[in-house]
Design goal:
DNA-binding; alpha/beta; about 35% helix; two-stranded antiparallel ribbon; homodimer; about 180 residues
DNA sequence: TAGATTGTTAATCGATTAACAATC
DNA sequence: TAGATTGTTAATCGATTAACAATC
């Protein structure tokens, strides 16, 4: 058993917040005693859709793309990297540590049955927007953009129903004004 | 000149929001005509501290670290990658496309004069928390964590004054519950 | 003057926090 | 019963949106 107080202390939020959030799952706790951990975990897994690995496609088989897609450390923890895509036929067709490297033209067909949960963009900046549009059209559920360019809200396909994480760009906003 | 209406249309927000936000800079606009672009830009640059490049240090000179730190595309756009750090003496001492590869023990001393704006963690997961603590102690202003591990709010040094971007982990939260 | 657009005040909305009756 | 802790309702807070007088 665990109390909302304990969960809050561990997570760095208030017990009120924990109870409020958990109440969305229904009445999971027992008054006077707290929450049964196994039952709570099962309910969270079911609610958040963590019962399966999130599928990942990496587009851009350059150094960054291969580093993210190809190495074991970055293939752990709830994510299943399914394929690496590139536009250059010289790079495609083979595989990298068991990860197939496919031509970017095959992305849509590969997505037809089951869209990717996460599309990672590791192309040069001038190709990023085009790739993002392609992913949106193919039903990719989230886009993580590592190309040093802001995709923003313009483009052929409006980015809706898809969260675009503008990596470095967004980070800059977190910084306080320069003291220099 | 540009109006709040036009800025809002481009940025995808309402004109009210634009005016509200810009009012923090003081009275920059002219009623009836809008905002003078050069004056507005200057005020934004001054306020957001964009007058200089944000300095970046990458810790972990593995494939990912070298891809992010060493290649031109990822060194553009307002960021100046200053150094790559690693714990393995066999990897340190040299340079990668002009970027010095230094031993991680030198990080604190290198930060003493001018702390890094952004510290990028590209180590294996079991070293990430230790590196984050080191960065916080050294005054690093923001941390971008690429190690597939959640740094969270625990650790030797509480993470204060520093935004930790939990890469893949945070992204998962953006996804809606699985439909599978 | 008349049309346009700002800057600010008021209203709305949602999320967080506080409080507490319910109840284990 | 008495202490503990939930689940929910009310209060607070901040941010977004609406409205409009000021004024270019």
């Amino acid at each position: 058993m665990i109390s909302s107080e304990t969960i809050g202390a561990v997570a760095g939020v208030t017990s009120d917040q924990v109870r409020k959030d958990l109440s969305h799952l229904g009445s999971m706790g027992k008054r006077g005693t707290g929450y049964a951990v196994p039952r709570l975990r099962d309910a969270l897994v079911a609610s958040l859709g963590l019962g399966r690995l999130l599928t990942v496609a990496v587009v851009g088989a350059g150094n960054l793309g291969m580093a993210i897609g190809g190495f074991p450390d970055y293939r752990a923890g709830g994510f299943a990297v399914k394929a690496l895509y590139d536009v250059n036929p010289n790079r495609t067709g083979g595989s990298l540590s068991g990860l197939p490297i496919r031509h970017v033209d095959e992305f849509a067909a590969d997505s037809a049955q089951a869209p990717y949960d996460i599309g990672v963009i590791t192309t040069p900046p001038d190709a990023a927007r085009e790739v993002a549009d392609m992913m949106v059209k193919a039903g990719t559920r989230a886009i993580l953009n590592f190309a040093p360019v802001t995709l923003g809200c313009q483009g052929e396909v409006p980015v809706r129903n898809v969260r675009v994480v503008e990596e470095m760009q967004i980070l800059a906003h977190y910084l306080e004004p320069s003291d220099a």
